[in-house]
Design a protein that fits this description.
Length: about 60
Amino acid sequence: MNDDRTEGSMKKMKGDLKEGAGNLTGDSKLQSEGKADKAEGKIQNTVGNVKDALTGKDRA
């Protein structure tokens, strides 16, 4: 597993927390930031998956 997958997962988790906090408080800016962080995390995680597939590293 490479660093992109780890960092992507962390960004997605951060986005989930931000979006949830924004939902609870009614803060639309925080909700938007959370959605953006989640999207960025998903992309980075996907890049990591592709890198692992190309190098033949185990996904476990």
